[in-house]
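Researcher: Sequence recovery benchmark, item below. Answer with residues only.
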């Protein structure tokens, strides 16, 4: 689930919870693009992420590059290990090491 939690202040916060997978990437991408247009710092709250896949990580990298090119600060809120651990446990990642 993706929820924009604060858009009126100095920072836009987008909270991601549960499964951060290909099913939510389009919604998150749309919210990130809207936030980037504002030109204010963006925080992506990942504290409630339980599972992530490679599409989520790819979107984070792409958003980071785009934000940097536009001079907008983008940061994760919460322990980045949550996302990395969740992605490492993703079936498509596990499959790479099991073959």
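Model:
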């Amino acid at each position: 689930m993706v929820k924009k939690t604060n858009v009126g202040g100095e920072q836009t916060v987008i909270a991601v919870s549960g499964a951060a997978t290909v099913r939510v990437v389009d919604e998150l991408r749309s919210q990130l693009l809207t936030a980037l247009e504002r030109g204010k710092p963006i925080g992506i709250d990942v504290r409630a992420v339980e599972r992530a896949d490679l599409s989520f990580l790819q979107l984070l990298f792409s958003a980071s590059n785009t934000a940097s090119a536009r001079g907008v600060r983008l940061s994760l809120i919460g322990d980045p290990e949550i996302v990395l651990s969740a992605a490492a446990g993703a079936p498509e990642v596990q499959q790479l090491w099991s073959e």
